[in-house]
Amino acid sequence: MKSSEVCKVLSHSRRCVEVWLEAGREGRSFSYAADPSMGLMPGDLVRVRLRGRAMHGLVVAEREWAEQDPQELQPVESLLQRAAVDSDWYSWLERVADRCHLSVFRTLKAALPSGWIGQAGQRSLAGGRQMWWIQAQVPPDAANPPTPRQRELLAWLEGQGDGAWQRDLVASGFGAQLLPPLIQQGFLVREQRRCEDMGSSAGSGPQELPQALTAEQKDVVKAYQRLSPGRGLLLWGITGSGKTEVYLQLAAQELERGRHVLLLTPEIGLIPQLVDRCRKRFGSRVVEYHSGCGDAERVRTWRRCLAAEQPLVVVGTRSAVFVPLKPLGLVVLDEEHDSSYKQDAPMPCYHARDLALDRVVMQQARLVLGSATPSLESWIQTGPEGALTLVRLTQRISRQSLPPVHVVDMRHELAEGHKRLVSRALMDRLAALPEQGEQAVVLVPRRGYSPFLSCRSCGEVVMCPHCDVALTVHRSKAGRQWLRCHWCDHREDLENRCSHCGSTAFKPFGAGTQKVLELLSRELEGLRLLRFDRDSTGGRDGHRRLLDRFAAGEADVLIGTQMLAKGMDLPRVTLAAVLAADGLLHRPDLRAGEQALQLLLQLAGRAGRGERPGQVLVQTYTPEHPVIQHLVDGRYEAFLSQEVALRKEAGLVPFSRACLLRLSGDSPSKTATAAAVLAERIRPICQLQNWWLLGPAPAPVARVAGRSRWQLLLHGPAGSPLPLPPGQALWDGLPKGVALTVDPDPQQL
To answer: Among 50, 96, 186, 690, which is least packed, fewest CB within 10 Å?
Structure first.
């Protein structure tokens, strides 16, 4: 539409709509003239102009033209999406906004796909693009029989059911030059279709049959069937016990009833494996929704969910908890203990587990929380008054027992003159892998080459100029080294002289994944190694490609960070090792012990999932630490019982509530002053509601990307509302340049 046409007044139209636009911090609604033929209703997404700029906004009301309305109103340019926001979904979002102490507008903007509300111009609102769709048919009279390769193509296409996109056919190894002769002879039909779902059509043909369930798995399915709508199961299943197969069979039951299924996983790295398993079972009904998808793909998935012609299985990370699915039958949170389900920045700061439980209550669906190491918060909800029913899987599908844990006391290694990072026991075990045809995973707490660079003459540590953290040493395959900040991504060259004292005695300290890989490749010649961390798994399919290489036997050892411990099924892995467990144990955090034990038990579960038994080696300087002791005996439930008793006696979460207020600003003094003023503003409310106010104090990392950071910690009775002023009053008194984040029930302080 031309700009001159946009400015025309629709004098013949006597209908108005109120459109919510991104204007100011919290958004505002504006009146626009609506062509009656559009049939606009609340919840529709439209394109309008505000002060000459094209904007995407949400219709929040539709009404007759009132006498007080201006005679000239800008028109609605076009309808972008009908019923983009359902009234029930919107009501639920209002409760989410209240829980997160955020306006409905900002919560809505965060929940919807990027680009749906705000300044127009993003390509993400475009519909699916035109692509070639290939179908097989019986030719009326084929003069020449197809060649062997053409017959292979026809057989593959027949296996896809109704047809396939030409893109997927070519991706399966068939050259595009094979198509024209087959089309000319009538073996194939090719036509342009609009492809809304840009995911692969793989799996749209014959589907994998469900696996036979064990007696324990059948008991879990029966428990789910007895579950009242609006309630949930806590599925406590040891690693390798077949939790995913249970999810798939429960999902199949809901799909047969015509209800949608939402499968959540904590990390993008776990998405490929779960999506592949789902597509083998459910074919083209499976869609993805997570930050690894582009804006356009997320919009297409959202649109498909709004107008689904059949029940879908949506696989995603925490943001997928907002995807509109109606009717909703089942929500699954796999690895429910994982802290990645908690959003701590930007606002809204929510926990996907809490929103999922709230949503299944609203939509009378059912929830399944699965983990080999359940969170304490979920475990205490399995009592008579809780919202969850506890069910267990205590046996591995392979019938193998859980691998034994062997602790290597690094103090003894040092006393006996072995000063290397990798113990002798681990070296011997790794060296035997190729001959035995086995694989190993090795956990290193830090990525990069070395955690920091220090001067041995004066002790100076090279810090990031923008953050209060040490720069990490990275190294390329060619041997070039540089420094990088893992908080703000600042990078600089590695100098050979200390800027403080001028000494050349610079030395990288500690070891990251890169250094461990270099050490093992030097010490164990012939051992094939791969690195699995955020630096080595870039791109949309980075995780899948690297894991596929390892599963195909291209390497003997996979060296990685905490990503290694999360949900991967690698049958040839018989050894799981932790190089420096001490770095996980001694963090100043309430949940440090719980999270360390969860991580170590999850890593241990990667070993021995196939036919061969597994083994776990843990290197530590504190083998007497309670977490290490519980790891060795495998009594996670005993650890939870002790932790519950300790926290209940001390009145700590989850037997109380916490809220963290984080302030950041360019000026250290202005930020500190704003934190002090804010504390005095809310202190009377805290006292009135029996909450404690701790702080203000500098954040543990007091400066990030050049911005000073302060925080206030609020601590009060369990189940009580936050002692904060209503609405946006909390932000009204903040000076310019100082930002505030409210994090209810934070995972990390």
So the answer is: 690
